[in-house]
């Protein structure tokens, strides 16, 4: 069973930066970290989980409009690690952030149902 563990969340003031990490383990058989579509999602209480950014096996990236120009998603396949660099943070970025892994990004990259494995989340709080 693939496990994803996020870290790097915390509390910052508006305009600050955070770097989230997600380490994957227990890939085996036909599954491979390097071949998976990886993504970051976020969720606030009472709302649906929303996609922030995804990165394909070929390192192609797609961002939600709220993240474009401020966030950067990247992956290090040698370390089985996914990153999200978040700059110019805003109070509305406050949420629990989750990493996710799936077989393909595709046209429906933004749908949480596309992803098979999920981390437990790391909280990001941005104060004004």
Describe this structure in words.
The chain has strands at 3-7, 10-13, 18-25, 37-43, 50-55, 61-63, 71-76, 81-86, 95-102, 117-118, 122-127. The chain is globular and about 45 Å long. The strands form two sheets. Strands 2, 4, 5, 6, 9, 10 and 11 form a seven-stranded mixed β-sheet that branches. A four-stranded antiparallel β-sheet has the order 1-3-8-7, with no helix packed on it. It is mainly beta.
Helix and strand arrangement:
Blueprint (H helix, E strand, L loop, with lengths): L2 E5 L2 E4 L4 E8 L11 E7 L6 E6 L5 E3 L7 E6 L4 E6 L8 E8 L14 E2 L3 E6 L1
Parallel strand pairs: 2-11
Antiparallel strand pairs: 1-3, 3-8, 4-5, 4-9, 5-6, 7-8, 9-10, 9-11
Percent of residues in beta strands: over 45%
Question: Which structural class best describes the helix and strand composition?
Answer: mainly beta
Number of strands: 11
The dominant shape is: globular
Radius of gyration: 14 Å
List its salient traits.
single chain; 11 strands; 128 residues; mainly beta; 7-stranded mixed beta sheet
Brief characterization of the structure:
This protein is mainly beta and 128 residues long.
């Amino acid at each position: 069973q693939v496990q994803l563990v996020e870290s790097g969340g915390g509390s910052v003031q508006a305009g600050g930066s955070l770097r989230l990490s997600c380490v994957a383990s227990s890939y085996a058989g036909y599954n491979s970290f390097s071949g998976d579509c990886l993504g970051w999602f976020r969720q606030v209480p009472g709302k649906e989980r929303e996609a922030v950014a995804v990165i394909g096996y070929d390192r192609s990236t797609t961002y939600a409009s709220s993240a474009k120009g401020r966030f950067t998603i990247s992956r290090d396949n040698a370390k089985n690690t996914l990153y999200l660099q978040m700059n110019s943070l805003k109070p509305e970025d406050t949420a629990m952030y989750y990493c996710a892994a799936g077989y393909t990004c595709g046209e429906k990259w933004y749908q949480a149902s596309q992803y098979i494995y999920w981390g437990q989340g790391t909280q990001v709080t941005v104060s004004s």
